[in-house]
Amino acid sequence: MMMNLKKICVIGAALFGSFMPLSAQEDIDVDELLRVMREMTVSQGNRDVMGSIRKGRNKVPFSISARGETLVFQYKFNDAWQRFDVRIKDKNADLVLVKNGKAQVMAPSSYAQTIAGTDVCYEDLSLRFLYWKGGKLINDNSSSRIKGRDCYIVEVKNPTPGAGQFAWVRMWVDKENGTTWQIDGYGADGKLKKRFSITSVQRLSDGTWFFKQMKLEVRNPQNPNRTIALDYLEMEDLPERKK
Length: 243
What we know:
The chain is mainly β. It has a single domain (5-235), classed as Lipoprotein localisation LolA/LolB/LppX (outer membrane lipoprotein receptor (LolB), chain A, Clam), CATH 2.50.20.10. The protein contains 2 helices and 14 strands; from the N terminus they run H-E-E-E-E-E-E-H-E-E-E-E-E-E-E-E. It has helices spanning 30-39, 122-126; strands spanning 49-55, 58-67, 70-77, 80-88, 93-99, 102-105, 136-137, 145-146, 149-157, 168-174, 180-186, 192-203, 209-219, 227-235. The chain is globular and about 50 Å long.
């Protein structure tokens, strides 16, 4: 059954969502964990959430909103707003270009197309890979801490090999509050291609938290330890909830 996207955090259905307690049980259902991540809510009603992609001094405004069972992404390029949608399927998600009122499903070869002169592509901004199923927990105590927090390490393989830039992703999910602190995307060659990580958060009046800034690192194909491009997703302050 398709989830009700009105319950989803308007920023990309889990762009490192709000904080909520997780079970301490180690033997967890990873697909259920991912579902909880997607459904973590910072409800802003039907209002758009605004932000910008920053590459150096260049800033590209964008907005994300939930409309029925579709997530709508818009970004400004050359003084005009461009739009693409994320339509959720049972095991995956389609990206759909919308122009002049006409919608066209995006070819997987376009997922890695960068947006408005930044290094952020369609698949990055939508975090499409959060809708993959069949994940598993990775037991690696030596690397399970991020920012001093104990995390589950979740690995999910691309259910459609060759569609998109990643063969699999690894996510570091806070065991206590469910925050996704880091996501690493790997290519078919087994090398790290991109790293997404939270650098700052903001607290809302109801006590929940939401990411303020996320860093995106593009890694060198020959040397994955080296970052060759750096962009930031920066969110505007979220308004307080009305009582």
